[in-house]
């Protein structure tokens, strides 16, 4: 979307193997031939890499979408989560302080709202993170506030709610459900399927993120579907209908780090960003299944990684 609007974009990724790298390469190949796009393989954890990047380019806006994502794996390897999500954010903010830049946008998470009343308002005290992932994102949010206060770096924090879409992370439920149902592999369902999420389609998230590039001062803004949360068992039923196949379900105990439900209050996004999600879950799931079918047999062979 940024390239379509005529912006010059520098994409950065360390291409780590947390999940199937071929999927990351697939996404990158759809950008590499675009005018005004360049890619650099580097790690935001490295101050040397960031310094070299700033020596090469002058940035007006930094969209920090770089993160170690996934709740459950953060319990296995919490150090890498703190390094990327905490130190990586600090390195980017330090570079903006040193080299300049007008705007910092941080992708944060609905996971911070664990245990709080729904729908989740940005003013709620997010002081009860129940996973190292959520705690690392909390540290990134705090750092963005500090650099706004000390150095005037205009920073907007966006709390994303269960982003999904074609070619999305294979550790996320929708990607896994589609592949498992299609292949007749039992779905690993934690709990009874009544846990629910405020699913948000990737195009809507992208539009909200771009809208947040304008000067806003320090703001925390939810980007979510904005409707009643959808139960996972309803998502499975819809995917069954789209694939014309029945799911085999293996029930497992609820995970201690999982949230029962998420639901965004999006009035602030509507007011400050003039943003409203437009893609329904039914339409979004149909787009995901269409992508999966159009990319067979490769899409059925994607390694799914550790469950989120």
Automatic annotation (TrEMBL):
InterPro entries, per the entry: Epimerase_deHydtase, NAD(P)-bd_dom_sf
SUPFAM superfamilies linked to this entry: NAD(P)-binding Rossmann-fold domains
Record keywords: Isomerase, NAD
Enzyme kind, highest EC tier: isomerase
EC number per UniProt: 5.1.3.2
A Gene Ontology molecular function term of the record: UDP-glucose 4-epimerase activity
All residue ranges annotated as the NAD-dependent epimerase/dehydratase domain in the record: 2-224
UniProt cross-references to Gene3D superfamilies, sorted A to Z: NAD(P)-binding Rossmann-like Domain
Protein name stated in the entry: UDP-glucose 4-epimerase
Taxonomic classification: Bacteria, Pseudomonadati, Planctomycetota, Planctomycetia, Pirellulales
């Amino acid at each position: 979307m940024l390239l379509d609007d005529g912006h010059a974009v520098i994409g950065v990724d360390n291409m780590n193997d947390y999940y199937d790298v071929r999927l990351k390469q697939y996404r990158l190949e759809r950008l590499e031939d675009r005018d005004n796009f360049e890619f650099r393989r580097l790690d935001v954890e490295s101050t040397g890499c960031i310094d070299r990047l700033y020596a090469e380019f002058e940035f007006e806006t930094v969209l920090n979408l770089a993160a170690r994502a996934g709740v459950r794996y953060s319990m296995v390897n919490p150090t890498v989560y703190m390094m990327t999500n905490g130190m990586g954010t600090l390195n980017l903010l330090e570079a903006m302080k040193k080299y300049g830049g007008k705007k910092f946008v941080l992708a944060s998470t609905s996971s911070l709202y664990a245990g709080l009343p729904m729908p989740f308002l940005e003013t709620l005290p997010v002081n009860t993170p129940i996973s190292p992932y959520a705690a690392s994102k909390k540290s990134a949010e705090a750092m963005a506030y500090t650099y706004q206060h000390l150095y005037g770096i205009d920073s907007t924090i966006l709390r994303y709610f269960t982003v999904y879409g074609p070619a999305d992370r294979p550790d996320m439920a929708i990607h896994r459900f589609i592949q498992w149902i299609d292949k007749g592999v039992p779905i690993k369902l934690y709990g009874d399927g009544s846990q629910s999420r405020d699913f948000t389609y990737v195009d809507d998230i992208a539009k909200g993120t771009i809208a947040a590039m304008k000067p806003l001062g320090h703001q925390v803004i939810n980007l979510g579907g904005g409707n009643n949360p959808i139960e996972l068992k309803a998502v499975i039923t819809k995917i069954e209908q789209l694939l014309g196949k029945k799911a085999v379900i293996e029930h497992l105990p609820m995970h201690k780090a999982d949230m029962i439900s998420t639901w965004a209050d999006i009035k602030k996004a509507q007011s400050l960003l003039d943003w409203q999600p437009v893609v329904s879950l039914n339409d979004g799931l149909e787009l995901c299944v269409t992508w999966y079918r159009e990319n067979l047999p490769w899409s059925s062979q994607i390694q799914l990684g550790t469950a989120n």
